[in-house]
Amino acid sequence: MQYIFESVxxxxxxxxxxxxxxxxxxxIFIIFFQRRDTKAIWAWLxxxxxVPIVGFILYLIIGQNLHKSKMFKVKEMEEExxxxxxxxxxxxxxxxxxxxxxITDERLSDYKDLVLYNxxxxxxxxxxNNEVRIFTDGxxxxxxxxxxxxxxxxxxxxxxxxxxxxxxxxEILDVLEKKAKQGVEVRxxxxxxxxxxxxxxxxxxxxxxxxxxxxxxxxFLGIFQIRVNYxxxxxxxxxxxxxxxxxxxxxxxxxxxKVKKFGHWRDTHFEIKGEAANELQLRFMLDWDYATKxxxxxxxxxxxxxxNFKKKHDxxxxxxxxxxxxxKRQEIRDNYLRLITKAKERIYIQTPYFIPDEAxxxxxxxxxxxxxxxxxxxxxxxxxxxxxxxxxxxxxxxxESGVKCYCYEGGFLxxxxxxxxxxxxxxxxxxxxxxxxxxxxxxxxxxxxxxVSMELERIFLDDMTKCSEMTKYDYAKRGMMIRMKEQVSRxxxxxx
Length: 496
What we know:
The chain is an alpha/beta fold and 496 residues long. Helix content is 46%, strand content 20%.
């Protein structure tokens, strides 16, 4: 033990003595060997050279570049997926899409270009045999989820960024144990960093009950989290290949209003029944394969993915769009951009963290200056103060262009999504920030349905009654301390 301690100490002293040369090597590596945004490059160079030791430590923790490395593979279904995608692309190119998918609303027909983009960029199949239920309250969402799990006959696949020990997880775990004993296949996948409070006893309990457990990017030696970036931020549950859940709620007592710090937790989550549940199952299987090396495609492709949906659900068009640092594009960000540019009347946005890149920021400003009713809703209270002040700063930027900004005062706003013209909506796990766009693994549902989108608009307008409006006058009056917090926090935006 003494030898290890002395070795660590010697290594530390050597790093301090040679920090200048280490920074030079890192600077060369960042500039010439990593394809980063120019602003991010300059931010890292300034940090490394002006705050050498702190900059070096931060680079080790959050500076690694995982971009464009192929992580998720589906060899067993590659041809089948490509064939399905090509068929749908051809219906659009041949002007047969509306007839094929029974689209009678001309307003939806105008979004074929977005459908095509998602087919080509994200390989997101368009489905129409779906029904959607919207949850904005944690008690309602988890009551429905637990009931669906109790009724499971074949499989329960659970994936959350955060699973925390507590009353909610205890109740869910009781159900999962019983179902596992009944022969239902239960798999639980969690992100190592987000679920650091899951509890080792709970993990042992799941494994002893026959529940298969997967951990995404586990900590080094079970202790050190060397990856703060590139976390799996998805929240997906699929039951019996037919019923799925996706949205903003994680598993923790704060999500059912049991933590006083946050008060009421306002989020948005979907229950999806139909063909789109199949697409969320595919997403889970890809993530599970990567984290656990258990290839569900090779074992039982037919068992976990349905190919014939006999039950006719509502005619709700949908694409499940995934994005992450392993992709060449920022698919969810691009969906937001396309929706903004296609808006004719109004754009309603909810997000707990608003740290847009230049393209999204300018698109929103142009939309507002063009007469589009653009409304942004953010939390009034922060769960991460540093990120909150950046959010507040960017929201302030939009005011000059005529964007209306609202601060939610009815608790903590964690809903993530956008509704355009009451026609198409995009909600899921991705915040409207650079981290969700480029650094985290996310999944959103793009819903082509005036019925669902109008309901999301109605919810947004109801939320507005619990908000205070941030006006140009009020923002200009903010104190010097707030201005300092904004400016200092915003310096680190390229590193987010």
